[in-house]
Amino acid sequence: MTLADIWPVRRLRVTTSALELAVPGEDELAELAIRAAAGIYDPQSRFLARSPVAGWESGPSPQAERSFLRYYWASLADWRPSRWNLVMAVKVDGACVGVQEIGAQDFGITGTVSTGSWIARRFQGRGHGKEMRAAILHLAFAGLGADRADSAAWSTNAPSLGVSWSLGYRSNGTTIRAFDGARQEQINLVLDRERWESHRDDIAIHGLGDEVLELMDVKRAASR
Ligand SMILES: CC(C)(COP(=O)(O)OP(=O)(O)OC[C@H]1O[C@@H](n2cnc3c(N)ncnc32)[C@H](O)[C@@H]1OP(=O)(O)O)[C@@H](O)C(=O)NCCC(=O)NCCS
């Protein structure tokens, strides 16, 4: 029995003509930890309110790298069918450029997923953010049969909002949060299955077997 036989989620991959989402192995985890620690925000930017992005932390090395690893391993350790979060490496031409996450609580009842993501700074602004979200939405709607996908971003985070608007999300109100000692407005976003219009025939899901669906509390018949 291999590790993937015991934990079949490891085999899950989503491929598009431009990139691949994959469950990271040890080498990929190290690459992502280094990228996360190197920083994902332009330090000069006065306009982008830094987000508390999952698994990313600035600070001295190697604490920042370890913080990413802890986050990753905690998401695995906490996995239950009733509450899971899948952290996938985003690979472009063999390099790990960032992270795309998808999670759900009681998916069999809610039919709802939420997503989060980051890309290493030098790979931002090249369309990868939109492409990886399109890939994870394909997994959610076509693979898991989701009804709805939620997301959120600070009102000042133009690239993150840009990804959501361009994929058809609509605003689902705002939440005011305290962050970094300041008042921050968060825009909540939702994409319903009806508004998810994927005409992409180049996106493929690999390794989504019955055991994985069980681990994700997917009870409905998906249209994959
Ligand atoms: C948010 C993030 C994942 C987006 O990925 P990206 O590769 O930089 O974005 P893309 O190049 O795919 O652009 C996506 C859309 O946003 C638009 N956009 C990108 N940067 C923008 C900016 N600075 N201002 C306005 N629009 C912008 C693009 O034009 C594109 O829209 P279009 O398809 O309608 O042209 C990436 O910038 C990132 O990792 N940022 C830091 C971490 C973060 O903020 N994560 C999200 C937390 S909520």
How would you characterize the overall build of this protein?
The chain has one domain (3-215): Gcn5-related N-acetyltransferase (GNAT) (Aminopeptidase, 3-Layer(aba) Sandwich). It has helices spanning 3-6, 26-38, 63-77, 107-110, 128-143, 158-166, 210-215; strands spanning 13-15, 20-22, 83-92, 95-105, 112-119, 148-154, 170-179, 182-192, 204-206. The chain has seven helices and nine strands, in the order αββααββαβαβαβββα. The protein is of the alpha+beta class. It has a nine-stranded mixed beta sheet, with helices on both faces.
Give a brief rundown of this model.
The protein contains seven helices and nine strands. The chain has one domain (3-215): 3-Layer(aba) Sandwich (Aminopeptidase), CATH 3.40.630.
Topology:
Layout: H1 3-6, E1 13-15, E2 20-22, H2 26-38, H3 63-77, E3 83-92, E4 95-105, H4 107-110, E5 112-119, H5 128-143, E6 148-154, H6 158-166, E7 170-179, E8 182-192, E9 204-206, H7 210-215
Helix pairs in contact: 2-3
The structure holds coenzyme A.
Characteristic key phrases:
224 residues, 9-stranded mixed sheet, alpha+beta, binds coenzyme A, Aminopeptidase, 30% helix
